[in-house]
């Protein structure tokens, strides 16, 4: 993948829980000035996995050497299936074995799984230490590193155990996207696309116009996609840190998506793939309820396809779908709630009759008969 | 233990993280009005252990029946040794198995271990649900249920994993203290005594005058002890929720105390027993450094003894003491820090030379030669 260089930019995020900057640019990870004005501490711990550490661990450690007397690293097993207490406990074991005090700064170097677990470890180690997000996937840069949601999975549900905890800074180095497999870049584009239907249809136009450049790894196009996605997310989160209302719209596609992920076993589908497909289902449910025209569903389906993402859900029995969606955190008193589009560019949280939900699922999934 | 009845009283607590009331009185647990104006939810979950549940579980469930459609219970294994991830996970398993949503209210019915774990579960289940403290030990009523500290232990350190999370209310029913073993009542008195040296010498006078009544279970004396302790703690916590400065004084006796608890294995000494003994050591260290007169150490030692608490630390090698105290959360960059008295009625966080610390420990502990 050819990567040119993008001009640096900053998105400021203000929430009741704290304010911080998102830095977006090329080569930020190697640049010591990316860490200027962060909390001082003698110890720093980089949390990563073996793949990402091999690519960027040394660069980050070198770049942090002038700020912290001791920089150590802890590597976690890779993938959503390992977003568990056991992995989290590896961080705690490391911190305690190194006698890390409550000023120690944690650096999350990796994708959403690393970010979520490092953030939750930072939120709970000695009841809270500072942490910095250094997201190395497009998905993490546009979504999971913004908004202060941290969590681990429980066998009965994704992200069920966690905390709202804001990073001290987010450093999005576009250079790290050059090493990203095409499948993961596509998965990240799902969360970029998401911001169109729920908030900004002009951004959806821009994404359609730049999909080829984005998939080719054009740095300037990626920089704009990351910036605009972070701006929208920051605006939404700034109004509603604790997800009492507006923030829930960021979960467009996620009720169906989480059911796909959990139903297939974490890791079988990438989160972004499940969300891409989930957005098609959520748009189709919006159309089923008469909230958007069918043409909108077709347009979104084409764009999800153009991003290299699946638009057809896997085969699962009706009861399994309903059971998996009922444990979603947005559910209330057992009623499944969906983020629906009404009209394009605006979204809200609603319930829908089971029979209409199942009809939409059937129309957009692999027939049960052909399931493996 | 004979218990008369005490007039009800309320202590209001305001912190940046939220405001809530502490209700103190006799028979509050059976009184539905104790729960008035709490967050509404269809589901409530009582977290307790088998001993406490057998005594008060039915009363609490009955008293909550008018507020919540479904009241279920989850029982955890008893004791500090079980303040672990495994116990915490029992709560999560229960919540998910019962499809509890993010409005579910958790009620912590028990002592500090139940309160700490229920609070941490509430802080992290779906990133935060409301919870109510119903402390049934004196220690929990005067200390652990106030201030929003929640945590579990890690094999390498006590309360290392946790969160600051405020309850929606604290209901201190003095009637529950009637069933408390004398040893646990004494342990609770350690934390009552604590508030004297660090904040209010007039309260220390009062405790000396009422020690017999307190140990005899006099409800009016206990009510005053709980009220004044909560008032002092609320004042301190209100000024410093996150323990950046003033709040640390509440840990008077805890640096030594935690080392005793961890060194002897959690559960061998009750927390209050370790704190009682730890206060004697911390006062002696204050005297060793010339901050208080020797007579103050003798006075505190007599009061700790009168409360039925140990004043002599267990035998441990010097290196073990230092190692255990270095993992204390107050330590910074490897330097152990103690809450020292200077003068009586005021406290601050300081370091001390290892040789003076060890001299004080030797003077106030069982000789190593006679260790089992």
Automatic annotation (TrEMBL), chains A, B:
Subcellular location: Cytoplasm
Keyword NAD set for record: yes
Pathways per UniProt: Metabolic intermediate biosynthesis; chorismate biosynthesis; chorismate from D-erythrose 4-phosphate and phosphoenolpyruvate: step 2/7
EC id: 4.2.3.4
Keywords annotated in UniProt: Amino-acid biosynthesis, Aromatic amino acid biosynthesis, Cobalt, Cytoplasm, Lyase, Metal-binding, NAD, Nucleotide-binding, Zinc
Amino-acid positions noted as binding Zn(2+) in the UniProt annotation, renumbered to this chain: 191, 254, 271
Cofactor note: Binds 1 divalent metal cation per subunit. Can use either Co(2+) or Zn(2+).
GO CC annotations, alphabetized: cytoplasm
Domain annotation 3-dehydroquinate synthase C-terminal: ranges: 188-331
Annotated residues for binding of NAD(+): 78-83, 112-116, 136-137, 149, 158
GO BP: any one term: amino acid biosynthetic process
Record-linked InterPro entries: Dehydroquinate_synthase, DHQ_synth_AroB, DHQ_synth_fam, DHQS/DOIS_N, DHQS_C
Cofactor(s) listed: NAD(+); Co(2+); Zn(2+)
Lyase as UniProt keyword: yes
SUPFAM superfamilies xref list: Dehydroquinate synthase-like
Chain ranges of the 3-dehydroquinate synthase N-terminal domain: 74-186
Annotated catalysed reactions: 7-phospho-2-dehydro-3-deoxy-D-arabino-heptonate = 3-dehydroquinate + phosphate
GO MF annotation terms: 3-dehydroquinate synthase activity; metal ion binding; nucleotide binding
Entry similarity comment: Belongs to the sugar phosphate cyclases superfamily. Dehydroquinate synthase family.
Summary of the function given for this chain in its UniProt record: Catalyzes the conversion of 3-deoxy-D-arabino-heptulosonate 7-phosphate (DAHP) to dehydroquinate (DHQ).
Protein name: 3-dehydroquinate synthase
Organism: Rubrivivax rivuli
Organism ancestry: Bacteria, Pseudomonadati, Pseudomonadota, Betaproteobacteria, Burkholderiales
Gene giving rise to this polypeptide: aroB
């Amino acid at each position: 993948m050819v990567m040119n260089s993008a001009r640096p930019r900053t998105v400021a995020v203000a929430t009741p829980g704290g304010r911080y900057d998102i830095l977006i640019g090329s080569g930020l990870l190697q640049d010591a000035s990316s860490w200027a004005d962060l909390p001082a501490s003698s110890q720093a711990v980089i949390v990563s996995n073996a793949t990402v550490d091999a690519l960027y661990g040394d660069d980050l450690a070198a770049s942090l050497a002038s700020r912290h007397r001791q920089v150590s690293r802890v590597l976690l097993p890779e993938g959503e299936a390992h977003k568990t207490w056991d992995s989290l406990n590896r961080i705690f074991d490391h911190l305690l074995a190194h006698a890390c005090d409550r000023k120690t700064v944690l650096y999350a170097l990796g994708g959403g799984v690393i970010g979520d677990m490092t953030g939750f470890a930072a939120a709970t180690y000695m009841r809270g230490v500072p942490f910095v997000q250094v997201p190395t996937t497009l998905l993490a840069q546009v979504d999971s590193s913004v908004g202060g949601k941290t969590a681990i999975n429980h066998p009965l549900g994704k992200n069920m155990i966690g905390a709202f905890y804001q990073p001290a800074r987010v450093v999005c180095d576009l250079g790290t996207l050059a090493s990203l497999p095409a499948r993961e870049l596509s998965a990240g584009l799902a969360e970029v696309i998401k911001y169109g239907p729920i908030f900004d249809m002009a951004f959806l136009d821009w994404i359609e116009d730049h999909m080829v450049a984005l998939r080719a790894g054009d740095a300037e196009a990626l920089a704009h996609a990351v910036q605009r996605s972070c701006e929208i997310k920051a605006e939404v989160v700034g109004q509603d840190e604790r997800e009492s209302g507006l923030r829930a719209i960021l979960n467009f596609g996620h009720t169906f998506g989480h059911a796909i992920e959990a139903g297939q076993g974490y890791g079988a589908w990438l989160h972004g793939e499940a969300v891409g497909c989930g957005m098609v289902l959520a748009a189709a449910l919006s159309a089923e309820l008469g909230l958007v025209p069918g043409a909108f569903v077709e347009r979104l389906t084409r764009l999800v396809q153009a991003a290299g993402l699946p638009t057809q859900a896997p085969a699962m029995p009706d009861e399994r779908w309903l059971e998996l969606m009922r444990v979603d955190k947005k559910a209330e008193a057992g009623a499944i709630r969906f983020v629906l589009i009404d009209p394009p560019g605006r979204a809200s949280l609603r319930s829908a009759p089971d029979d209409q939900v199942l009809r939409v699922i059937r129309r957009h999934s692999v027939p049960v008969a052909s399931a493996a």
